[in-house]
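Our platform keeps sequence and structure together, in a single record for each protein. This encoding replaces a full spatial description with a residue-level series of whole-number codes. We quote a single record here, exactly as it is kept in our systems:
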Amino acid sequence: MSATRRQMLARSGALGAGIVVSGAVTELFSASAASALPLTENGYGPLVPDPHGLLDLPKGFRYRVLSREGDALRSGEGPVPSHCDGMTALPGRRGRVHLVRNHENRVTAALGVPTVEGLTYDPAAKGGCTLLTLDGPGGAVVDERVAIAGTAVNCSGGPTPWGTWLTCEETEDKAGGAGYAKDHGFIFEVDPADPRRSGAVPLTAMGRFQHEAVAVDPVHGIVYETEDAFVAPFGLFYRFLPRRPEGRLGSLRAGGRLQAMRVPDLPDLSVVDEPGASFGGVQWVDVPDPLAAQTPTRLQDYGRGGVTRGQKLEGCYWGGRSVYFVSSYARTGEGSGADHHGQVWRYDPGARRLTLVIVFGPGSDVQLPGDSPDNICLAPGGSLMVCEDGSGAQHVFGVTRRGEVYTMARNAQNIGTEEAPEWGEFAGVAFSPDGGTMYVNCYDPGTTFAVTGPWRG
């Protein structure tokens, strides 16, 4: 870019946040956002403190609490589980909206996902998904029930073009470890129209590792997968070539090939710090043992040249003709080649090219975002929405196509003490099919919000 780093930061209104955006930022956005009206440097304006101490939003926006951990599920199956994480919003019949919500529960969770016959994989595990059905995009909850149970540490996932949710286990514990009765570390498919049609079947060919998120190429049916490994050696970026690429409920069970990304001369993503840096000739190497029977997939032998690694590979989505994924942070003290506070990468399959699009700087001030991006999604109004999962106060913030950064929401719930305050991370940001409502979770205490207001565009 021709502008200096300081000019870019000043233009974005994020000098204190330290967020750098490359000139390729417009390519982050799909055609659905092409006609959106531009936002100002301040986005929707400053956040207004919530008198109820739940969620701070800009003036003119309002929220409703759709669900909160510990409350009773409408189905009568038990209480709402804790640790609300990744989520999607899918259209239902007669204008209804389905929210499929992950619960990142380990065996120690106080509020696990209730076991339900026909929907439970491993009764010893407490993770899974719940399904909220709304009577409209901004409407009331008409049903809330278990969609899948007996899975472990369901962190994120991704929607499919055929209207289901792929929920990912962020663990690689095997049967007998951590108290589990079955192996874990899989992806499961959830059908919001009828969860019993999808059941609780692990998609074993898609790999057994510390899954985070997935994104599906809607044309070729290829599924891209991130691995959230925060201990060296770090995780890989994968693609799954399905045997049945036409894509429909259950088609991923037919199997396929799992491959890991190799970028020539780039073994560690963390060492790249210039937005716009691009690497061609990306290769894909077959994973020798996707089930990781003896050796974790990231530690297997990939031959001469190895594979490319990144610390904390998290959010993932498909936009336009490319897939985007997040490295939440990198720390040399933990084994990375360089330090950073968050990256967004774009992989263009047609060109076989990987490009660093956004680099995030530290955001330690409670008023400023920018520390450890996690879940991401495209807003119909023309912004990239990013959930923050770092230190200090936690935000949802937006990045416009002009590279401007603004705060959209702040978690006002102190889960620590007055002397040592803590705020739970945001997760699962998603928009209603009509673009008029933003849904987002607070991880702790587990809360699901619907946010409406004057969305531009």
